[in-house]
Amino acid sequence: MDMCAPTDGDLDTYPHVMFTSNLPWNPCILDNEYPIGELTSPTKDALLPAYRSHSVNDYGEIFAASRVPKPSILDPLNVQPNLGFVPTKRIQHTLENTTQHARLDTRLPMRKHFKTRFPAANVNRLLETFATDTFFSDTPALNDGIYGHGGSTMTQLYCGCTSQFTAIFPMKTDSEMASTLEDFIRLHGAPSALFSDNAKAQIGHAVHEILRMYAIADFQCEPHHQHQNPAERRIQEVKKMSNSMMDRTNTPPDLWLLCIQHTVYTLNRLSVASLNWRIPFQAAFGQQPDISALIAFRWYEPVYFFSPTSHFPSTPRERKGRIVGIAEHQGDTLTFLVLDELSHKVVARSELRSALNPLHPNLRAESTLAISN
């Protein structure tokens, strides 16, 4: 049927149907519609919302529910062959204490898939909310040879609201925040929720895409109430300990990034009274950490480390450096990050000794350093 807009003549000649009264609305006409004596107090159930979506949490936050499959109820007897024919009671408890979110999608004819079907299942889960915030430095970090360190002037910090486990990632611009979130998930796991302030970089599209992919809830503090963010308090503690360590060891200011990384490593392995004297690392991952590396050397301690590129007899087999951290992802447990005082680059070394022992000096290493300076 053809349709067209009405003309002025149509509006004048066609009948007009009034859906509402053309009189001004007066809500008082409904007053005393029912006698007060006939009214009864509502029950508790009547005061509850008629409907609440399962995608809304206690913070009024909406989950990406369409991406989270609903678990189906499995019969322990049916899955008994899949679980080694153990008793059904044990299988029932197993089903109650595990998830079964993945669904086998068989397409005919068969074809290969190019993207992971369950990205949230490919990472460890941290069963707590992590808070995050950015703090800044007025001195660019030293170009120490570690990727992402040179020229960094800000750091993104993540800390567990329950465990107090902390992780930091250097940045040059706040637009790198989404990349730090991906690195946090890659290294430590996906938290249950992410708590942040209202900075655009922390609630932007890139961050939301990552949260959707890994089914992570997010919520923010009230605008202009940054003190509600637990990461603010943790930043103060990190800065306080870093300042103390740099003051007591005369650390150059451009080593601030290496210092706060070492500080965070230390804080994650110090007992906390509010955790009933448990370790943050243990509270987050359930594993008791080893602190042998922290006891072996202190921050910025002068050391001699083995130089595999030395040439006889022109250069000594040892070079002098400074302890600037623990190599968590290189070598064995007692592998350290050493700042080479000749090249001003950080190297990972396990063959090293303290340079503070007066009984075993290396005068050639000292003289080589003095000549270069």
Write structural notes for this entry.
- This protein has 10 helices and 10 strands.
- Strands 3-2-1-4-5 form a 5-stranded mixed β-sheet, with helices on both faces.
- It is an alpha+beta fold and 373 residues long.
Short recap of the structure:
The chain is of the alpha+beta class and 373 residues long. It has helices at 8-13, 44-47, 88-96, 177-187, 205-213, 230-249, 256-267, 280-285, 292-296, 363-372, and strands at residues 125-136, 154-160, 166-171, 190-196, 217-220, 302-306, 318-326, 336-340, 346-349, 352-354. The chain has a five-stranded mixed β-sheet with strand order 3-2-1-4-5, sandwiched between helices. Strands 9-8-7-6-10 form a five-stranded antiparallel β-sheet.
Keywords:
373 residues; five-stranded mixed beta sheet; 10 helices; 10 strands; alpha+beta; elongated; five-stranded antiparallel beta sheet
Describe the SSE topology.
Elements: H1 8-13, H2 44-47, H3 88-96, E1 125-136, E2 154-160, E3 166-171, H4 177-187, E4 190-196, H5 205-213, E5 217-220, H6 230-249, H7 256-267, H8 280-285, H9 292-296, E6 302-306, E7 318-326, E8 336-340, E9 346-349, E10 352-354, H10 363-372
Parallel strand pairs: 1-4, 4-5
Antiparallel strand pairs: 1-2, 2-3, 6-7, 6-10, 7-8, 8-9
Helix pairs in contact: 6-7
